[in-house]
Amino acid sequence: MHEDINKDVCTFIMLLFKCMKISIVTLLTTVSFAALCMGAGSIFSYKPVPVSFTSPKGWPAPVYNFNGNPLTKEGIALGKKLFYDPLLSSDNTVSCATCHEPSAAFATYDHPLSHGVNNLTTRNAPSLFNVAWQKEFMYDGRAKSLETQALLPIHSSDEMDTNIPVLLKQLNASPSYKKMFTAAFGASKITVDQITRALSQFQLTLVSANSKYDKVMRGETSFILPEKLGYEIFEKKCVSCHTPPLFTNYSYENTAITRDPILKDNGRERFTGKGADSLKFKVPSLRNVALTFPYGHDGRFYSVLDVLTHYRASGLIPLTNFEIGQLTAFLNTLTDSSTLTNPAFLPARVLINNKIPNHAHQ
Predict the structure, then answer these.
(1) What CATH superfamily classification does 212-335 receive?
(2) Which of 16, 145, 212, 318 places its Cα 20 to 30 Å from the Cα of 202?
(3) Confidence grade of residue 46 (pLDDT, cut at 50, 70, 90)
(4) DSSP string of 147-171?
């Protein structure tokens, strides 16, 4: 488009020169001024709109370095488009949302193991809510930044198995993507760094802080008796690892889960090489826990009851049947239903009567 405009301007100037018989000096001055104006227009057209990140009241400061990747309206929109686009996978069937499904609080829904391009992966994808407060990512902590967390599945042969040069060629050849990348990061060839920064910007907006628990803490409502009793039990027996308001301390723990004989997943030890890290996995957040089943790094627990029964049977947390019932009632208060219908989080085609359908993997 810019080339067409440039030709039109030059043609107009030459006609003007012939008709008016102006001097060559005047012509050169006019051309120079026109070129400067067109160049300035290209430069100043790159004006991404800043978006501020606001932590919920009473929450700790996020650990993400927003100075290195400031949020913009254009960057978030681009990240959202990329997040839901299967173009990022080698066979164009798997997107980020395939494993991090909106209806499951951006975790894996229904299946024990997430599905990649070659069918099953080796783990159950955790929720992506509140990632601005995480220092490390993946169950074993091998991703040291949110950008790395986005890149690892793209490279992984059993997840997206992406051919990066092919992907970049496709994106650079797409007029719509080219326009969005230019609006977010300026006119240049699309790079992997831009892809991961855009994905990070979208994921950073996924904040969940409006559950019944949050409303109780804000004094807007009250727990019913089972929820109140469950909260008291939770504070005595669970809070050291699942610390509010994020409901995790992001530590790595061995919770007496035996090693699967087929997956042979040794947890954090696989990354650190330390025997002391054997079968240690990151403590997951309990926010929206009612939506993120099945549970565990390999999805072996199909219900909250299964998890609590495991803790009791392993001796890690002594629980009576009554306590399990009350704890379950409290954990249900951590569901933030507003996240399921927030248009900012969802692709437009997912919304049906302002609701998102509950679905399994496609």
Answers:
(1) Cytochrome c-like domain (1.10.760.10)
(2) 212
(3) confident
(4) HHHHHHHHH-TTTT---HHHHHHHH
Contacts of residue 125, defined as CB under 8 A and 6 or more positions apart, other chains included, come to 99, 100, 107, 108, 114
Q: Which two tokens stand for residue 32?
A: 């120079």
Task: Compute the average pLDDT of residues 216-243.
Answer: 98
DSSP tag of 50:
B
DSSP for 6-40?
A: HHHHHHHHHHHHHHHT--HHHHHHHHHHHHHHHHH
Q: What is the mean pLDDT of the chain?
A: 88
CA-CA distances (angstroms) from residue 273 to 139, 197, 259?
Answer: 15, 30, 16
Q: Do domains 73-207 and 212-335 have the same CATH topology?
A: yes
Helix or strand or coil: residue 116?
strand
| Placement of tokens 């913009």 in the chain | 72
> What CA–CA distance (Å, rounded) separates 73 from 50?
6
Sign of CA dihedral 9, 15, 18, 19: negative
On the question of pLDDT at 28 being above 60, the answer is no
Q: Where do the structural domains in the chain lie, given as residue ranges?
A: 2-44, 73-207, 212-335
Q: Which of 137, 121, 106, 153 is nearest to 265 (CA)?
A: 121
CA separation for the pair 56, 60 (Å, rounded): 9
The C-alpha atoms of residue 16 and residue 19 are separated, in whole angstroms, by 5
Residue type, 264: K
Pairing of strands 119-120, 252-253: unpaired
Partners of residue 116 on adjacent β-strands: 119
CATH class given for the domain over 73-207: mainly alpha
Q: How many angstroms separate the Cα of 24 from the Cα of each of 7, 14, 16, 20, 21?
A: 19, 11, 12, 12, 9
Condensed to tens digits (0 to 9), the pLDDT of residues 239-268 reads 999 999 999 999 999 999 999 999 999 999
Half-sphere exposure (Cβ direction) of 274: Cα atoms closer than 13 Å: 7
What's the DSSP call for residue 134?
-
pLDDT above 90 covers a percentage of the chain that reads 81
Structure token pair of residue 123:
């783990």
